[in-house]
Amino acid sequence: MSYEALREQVLTALSKVVDPELRRDIVSAGMVKDVHIDGGFVKFTLELTTPACPLREYLVTAARQAVESLEWVEKVEVDVTARVPQQVRSKASMPLVKNIIAVGSGKGGVGKTTVAVNIAVALSQMGAKVGLLDGDIYGPNVPRMLGVQGQPKIVGGKLMPLSSWGIRVMSIGFFIDPDTPVIWRGPMLHKAVEQLLCEVEWGELDYLFVDLPPGTGDVQISLTQLIELAGAVIVTTPQDVALYDALKSVSMFEKTKTPILGIVENMSYFVCPNCGHRTEMFPRKSVEDECAKRKIRYLGSIPFSPELSVGSDIGKPIVVAEPHSQVAIALYEVAKQVAASVSITALSQS
To answer: For the CA atoms of the chain, what is the radius of gyration?
Structure first.
């Protein structure tokens, strides 16, 4: 049998492996690369849509087993790489940044910034190029949570972001006295957001997260006017008052034609550090049920953890300080779900 005929058999076998998230087989989705055959040895590359793919093990195993099912195959080697798809934008703005993601909440105190910081660092640890813009002009807490300080330099007319825990960071907090309140109205807020977003040398990024202030105010409107977003992640806690306000944020982004990547349920439950017993702090599944009702992706739940707030206060995210803790593991899973949702949204547009 000719080499091309053998190669066709391999591709046919692999075309039976379907990515359940993309709902496409891995061959037609362009995920199979560099097929090499040497006698009974087959080697190929599986190119995932994100280094944080939550289905990585499933897809690798399914692809290997599909090829091993061919009678003449003796050994299979799968190399795994990742290439994050870029969102489709009608405007040629920030071309080196593949996906810009807003992180919002309906009200304050739900842990939005803590979640944004940790999922950004988690994705960087998994191999993605990540940036984080502190868009909360009134309460810029990102520098403290990441333990980074200093004033960004200007090179070639562009601000250079600072770096912390593997991600690039920009915040109004780098330029103002931490004890001085920001008392700005709409036009000044719009200009500040524009400068921090568009006049920064972000470089090549797979994901740029924008941590927004709570609510649906001027900063949110400015962001959607300035740039086309890959989508929005909404953070809430389980109690009804927080969820109702979070749904207002969902509605605001939908009105600006921004895809909703999903909702994160923070401070969902408590795990006793002594006995491991899980205690539900609020009525269970209220957020998950609302997501199902509205056909919004439920990105996962994060337990209440005193260590999480301690890490934020000392500038060491929990995914760095205690990467094997239950709360860090939950945050890693949320980060994977966010990355998957970004890929699905981007590929559905292309």
So the answer is: 22
What is the percent of the chain with per-residue pLDDT over 70, rounded to a whole number? Answer: 98
CA–CA distance, 314 with 71 (Å, rounded to integer)? 58
- Does the structure show a pLDDT above 80 at 285? no
The 10 Å Cβ neighbour count of residue 255 is 10
How buried is 112 (Cβ within 10 angstroms: 0-12 exposed, 13-18 middle, 19+ buried)? buried
Cα four-point dihedral sign 261, 18, 56, 165? negative
The type of residue at 141 is N
Q: Which domain holds residue 20?
A: 3-82
Q: What is the pLDDT of residues 32-78, one digit of tens each?
A: 999 999 999 999 999 999 999 999 999 999 999 999 999 999 999 99
Q: Tokens representing 305? A: 């953890």
Alpha carbon distance 61, 56 (integer Å): 9
- For residue 314, CA distances in Å to 41, 144, 148 come to 52, 7, 10
pTM for the whole structure: 0.93
Mean pLDDT of 244-266: 95
301-310: average pLDDT: 90
Cβ proximity of 110 and 238 under 8 Å: no
- CATH number of the domain at 213, please: 3.40.50.300
Domains contained in the chain, number: 2
- The two tokens of residue 266 are 């923070």
95 belongs to a structural domain: no
